[in-house]
Structure formats: C-alpha cells, structure tokens
Design goal:
The protein is an all-alpha fold and 151 residues long. The protein is 91% helix and 0% strand. The chain has a domain of 102 residues: Orthogonal Bundle (Helix Hairpins). It contains two helices and no strands.
Length: 151
C-alpha cells in the first residue's frame, strides 16, 4: 500500500514550532505582568502603612520631623505607584500583543492542519479509486478468460 507523504509537512512542523514559541512568549509576558502587579500591590500596602502612621502621629504627641518624613515617604510612594501603574499597563498591552500573536499562530497552524487533512482525504480517495480500478480490471480479465474458455 502507498504511504501518505504530505508535501508541506516541513511547513506544518515550522508552524508547530512557531506556535510553541508564541506560547512561551505569552507565558513569559503573563509572568512579568503578574510580577509587576505584585510590585504595585506592595506599593499600595506601603501607602496604607504610611497613612496609618500619619493618622497615629496626629492622634499622639506631634513629632514634626517624623511627620515630615512620613509625609515625604507617602508622597514618594504615591509617585512610585503612578509610575508602577504605567509599567503594569505596558505589561498588560504586551500580554495582549503576545496573545494576539499566539492566536494568529494557532489559526495559521490549524489552516495547515486542515490542508494536510484535505490532502490525506484526497490520497485516500486516490487509493480507493486505484483499488476500484484494479478490481474492475481483475473482474474484466476473469470475465474475458471465461468467454475464451467456453468456446
């Protein structure tokens, strides 16, 4: 029996590799995004801590130096939070781009898989047609031999 050979198998293999690479890039982008979100959460925790300190200092004996330090630290943390928000937004957009790229790679791979399936279907049809032709020839040969044998 004939063996099926897909002429564009090397292209399909490349599509699999590109898809796997896109998956890895997407995973890395998601990991980076999670890390940046954790940093932002820590900054917000620090902001809450400094706000509590300021409230505590306002309730007790005023230490102007500590009040200034905590106020400056709170301002710094707020600026840091704004900067980190920008970093998180960039990481989110990078994740979105990687996701779109991954989707494109998956569609491209699936298209090539469909082409392979179609080629395989055509191959099976050719095999069936060839077998049918061989059977017809065999039957025709046997019928012709019967005719010549009877005379």
């Amino acid at each position: 029996m004939a063996k099926f050979v897909y002429k564009m198998q090397s292209i399909l293999d490349i599509k699999y590799k590109l898809e796997n690479q896109a998956k890895a890039e997407y995973g890395m982008a998601v990991s980076i995004l999670q890390g940046e979100k954790l940093k932002l959460d820590k900054i917000y925790d620090d902001i809450d801590k400094y706000k509590r300190e300021l409230r505590y200092m306002n309730d007790g004996v005023l230490d102007v130096m500590k009040l200034k330090e905590s106020s400056a630290a709170l301002s710094y943390k707020k600026r840091e939070a704004q900067a980190q928000k920008v970093v998180v937004e960039r990481a989110e957009s990078r994740v979105e781009r990687k996701k779109e790229k991954l989707n494109e790679m998956m569609v491209d791979r699936k298209t090539h898989e469909k082409l392979r399936e179609k080629a395989f279907g055509e191959f099976l049809k050719e095999i069936a047609d060839q077998e049918s032709k061989e059977i017809d020839e065999l039957v025709s040969f046997q019928y012709n031999n019967q005719d010549t044998g009877e005379e």
